[in-house]
Amino acid sequence: MSTQARNAIVAAPVSTTSFWRRLRRTVIDRATAPLFAALLLMYWEFHVRYFEVEALLLPPPSHIAMAFWNGMASGLFLRHFTITIYRALSGFAIASLFGVALGAAISHFRFVEKTVYPWVVALQTVPKIAIAPLILVWCGYGSLSKIVTAALVAFFPVLVNTIIGLRSCEQSKLDLMRSLRASRWLTFRLVELPNALPFIFAGLSVAAVFSILGALVGEFVGSKDGIGFLILDANYQLNIPRVFALLILLGLYGIICHLALQFAHKKLVFWNEPKDVTSA
């Protein structure tokens, strides 16, 4: 028997074994989280019913699922959800634009850093729930006050990550552009901004979550519509299953935002793809 044939016979079981090992690892990785969630929900349902826990304290998952279905089927959840998402996404867009622009100005101009950045940090240290009533007085009872609150909450992560990303650019790249007599704008567009994009996307991921929190804070302070209004209304009525259903809806929105930003990161910053924690 030739050497090549003997190597093929030996390699076949090895490759088959490695294939089944990879398949088993993939199945385990993908099934662990859903299996854990299913077991947790089963135990939750059993514990609440067996120990007769009051639904006012902790409703069973079956009641929460029924409340979620009723809210979605009636259109109540979707109507108020679209209002809250509009406010959150508007605030997120404003925070992203101003955060990147001001971060670029602070990283390039020392005068802006010395005059503006300390005030931005001081504003960040003030709890937004404390200034939300003032924003309500200044901007009115409509959506504008909620958008401003969402933008203020989401602004700082984008700003800080932009500054860090722009200042982390390697000096050798900057020296190369300077030796080529490239303008400051050309250096920023071709070297500094691409280098900062992974940091900017990290800030955007945090800002996307913070924006929905800011919109909810604005709705808690004063609103007649939105998810925050529904949560307060359900609390007043002691409808705890509806509160949990609304929280699930917000959680689904957070997952969608995370996946969307991760997809955009992979497409726009393909040389530095984000590592998914769930697949590590």
Structural summary, described in words:
Helix content is 83%, strand content 0%. It has 280 residues and is mainly α. The chain folds into two domains: 1-53; 61-279, MetI-like (MetI-like fold, Orthogonal Bundle). The protein starts with a helix and ends in a 12-residue tail after the last helix.
Provide key terms for this protein.
280 residues; mainly alpha; 2 domains; 11 helices; MetI-like fold
In a nutshell, what does this entry contain?
The chain has 280 residues and is mainly α.
Query: How many independent structural domains?
Result: 2
Provide the succession of SSEs. Answer: HHHHHHHHHHH
The largest sheet, given as strand count, sense and whether it forms a barrel, is: none
Distance, first to last CA = 44 Å
By CATH, the superfamily of the largest domain comes out as MetI-like
CATH topology of the largest domain, by name, is MetI-like fold
What is the general shape?
flat
Question: Mind telling me which CATH architecture of the largest domain this is?
Answer: Orthogonal Bundle
Helices and strands, with pairings:
Layout: H1 3-50, H2 61-73, H3 76-108, H4 110-115, H5 117-125, H6 128-139, H7 143-167, H8 171-179, H9 184-221, H10 227-236, H11 240-268
Helix pairs in contact: 2-11, 3-7, 3-9, 6-7, 6-9, 7-9, 9-10, 9-11, 10-11
